[in-house]
């Protein structure tokens, strides 16, 4: 990989800054990255947590890789006000958004290899007029992507929710044959192109208990999910199911597929976070850029205390580097 990864700040009142510092300390095991952050706040945080991380502000991204061995390169994104750990401040919302925008712009321009995002606090952004449900939808808007798809991946499991940031009531309206087919197409294409899996196996979960029990516990499996599977198989995509969600994540079941397609957010994410929270990575499929993120939130309750575990961010950095390298080699 010839370019650094672009790492966003996340909410400065959360654990993102600490994770960034600790990821640099583990740099022998991570690809070079540049933090799009406020250098002063990272310096102050490193001193507070007694982390020996030299901070070096860089004027352009192209020098970051050369700096990375000896110091954490930071492309400056000034904050509106000094952050207070655990207390998100709307005065810093513009900087949080700008960090994501700049990371995406740099990656689209070919100056950065991929986008890696630290966790944001969505409600704080909503308070200043942020119109997107989360990172996934914002990145889609920034890149002109019609259908971004969220995948969470770890060494033991990959999952994709067909619907993401929607209430259960709204989710029921969103589960259609067309949406299931579209999300599965994006997933299948990404597994082929980015993961190098020549014939991905997509296992679809049912929506209802026992996958509907032949219609006695709900008809969505018969009327919606099964027709979607039939259409996908007619297109040459190895989709199968629907399976009862309470039994499709056992070790034996997981050996039979490459990705589990859940119908809604928690159905897909709870198994992965239970099995491998530390190594879980959020990947956005369907974008023209590689984007990964740790699979956890801002963790305000432990922010600024030196207790945050950087494992998921390091895994996100490693996966972004792998995917970006494969993309670069293919191009």
UniProtKB/TrEMBL annotation:
Check the UniProt entry and state the signal peptide residues, or none: none
**Chief subcellular site?**
cytoplasm
Pathways involved: Cofactor biosynthesis; pyridoxine 5'-phosphate biosynthesis; pyridoxine 5'-phosphate from D-erythrose 4-phosphate: step 4/5
Q: Keywords for this entry? A: Cobalt, Cytoplasm, Magnesium, Metal-binding, NAD, NADP, Oxidoreductase, Pyridoxine biosynthesis, Zinc
Q: Which residues bind a divalent metal cation?
A: 165, 210, 265
Q: Which cofactor does it need?
A: Zn(2+); Mg(2+); Co(2+)
Q: Which GO terms describe its biological process?
A: pyridoxal phosphate biosynthetic process; pyridoxine biosynthetic process
Q: Which residues form a coiled coil?
A: none
Under the heading InterPro entries, the entry gives:
PdxA (IPR037510), PdxA_fam (IPR005255)
This protein's source sits in the domain of life called: Bacteria
The record's catalysed reaction(s) read: 4-(phosphooxy)-L-threonine + NAD(+) = 3-amino-2-oxopropyl phosphate + CO2 + NADH
Q: What is its EC number?
A: 1.1.1.262
Q: How is the cofactor bound?
A: Binds 1 divalent metal cation per subunit. Can use ions such as Zn(2+), Mg(2+) or Co(2+).
Give me the residues that bind substrate, please: 135-136, 273, 282, 291
Tell me one Pfam family matched here: PdxA
Function text: Catalyzes the NAD(P)-dependent oxidation of 4-(phosphooxy)-L-threonine (HTP) into 2-amino-3-oxo-4-(phosphooxy)butyric acid which spontaneously decarboxylates to form 3-amino-2-oxopropyl phosphate (AHAP).
Q: Which PANTHER family match?
A: 4-HYDROXYTHREONINE-4-PHOSPHATE DEHYDROGENASE, D-THREONATE 4-PHOSPHATE DEHYDROGENASE
Similarity annotation: Belongs to the PdxA family.
Something else the entry says is: The active site is located at the dimer interface.
Under the subunit heading, UniProt states: Homodimer.
Its protein name is: 4-hydroxythreonine-4-phosphate dehydrogenase
Please tell me the species this chain comes from: Rhodovastum atsumiense
């Amino acid at each position: 990989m010839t370019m650094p990864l672009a790492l966003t700040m996340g909410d400065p009142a959360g654990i993102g800054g600490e994770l960034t510092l600790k990821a640099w300390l583990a740099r022998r095991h991570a690809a070079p990255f540049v933090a799009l952050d406020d250098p002063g706040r990272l310096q102050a945080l490193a001193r507070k947590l007694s982390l020996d991380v030299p901070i070096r502000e860089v004027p352009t991204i192209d020098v970051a890789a050369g700096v990375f061995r000896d110091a954490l390169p930071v492309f400056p994104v000034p904050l509106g006000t000094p952050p207070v750990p655990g207390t998100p401040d709307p005065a810093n919302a513009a900087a949080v958004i700008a960090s994501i925008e700049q990371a995406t712009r740099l990656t689209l321009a070919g100056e950065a290899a991929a986008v890696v995002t630290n966790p944001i606090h969505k409600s704080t952004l909503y308070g200043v007029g942020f119109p997107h449900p989360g990172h996934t939808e914002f990145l889609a808007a920034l890149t002109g992507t019609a259908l971004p798809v969220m995948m969470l991946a770890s060494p033991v499991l990959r999952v994709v929710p067909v619907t993401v940031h929607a209430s259960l009531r709204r989710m029921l309206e969103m589960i259609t044959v067309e949406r299931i087919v579209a999300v599965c197409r994006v997933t299948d294409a990404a597994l082929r192109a980015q993961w190098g899996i020549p014939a991905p196996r997509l296992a679809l979960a049912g929506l209802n208990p026992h996958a509907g029990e032949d219609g006695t516990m709900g008809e969505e499996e018969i009327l919606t999910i099964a027709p979607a599977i039939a259409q996908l198989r007619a297109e040459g995509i190895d989709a199968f199911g629907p399976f009862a969600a309470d039994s499709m994540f056992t070790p034996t079941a997981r050996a039979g597929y490459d990705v589990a397609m859940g119908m809604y957010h928690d159905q897909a994410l709870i198994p992965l976070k239970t099995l491998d929270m530390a190594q879980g990575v959020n990947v956005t499929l369907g974008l023209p850029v590689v984007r990964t993120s740790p699979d956890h939130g801002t963790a305000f309750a432990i922010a600024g205390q030196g207790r945050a575990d950087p494992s998921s961010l390091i895994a996100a950095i490693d996966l972004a580097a792998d995917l970006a390298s494969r993309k670069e080699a293919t191009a």
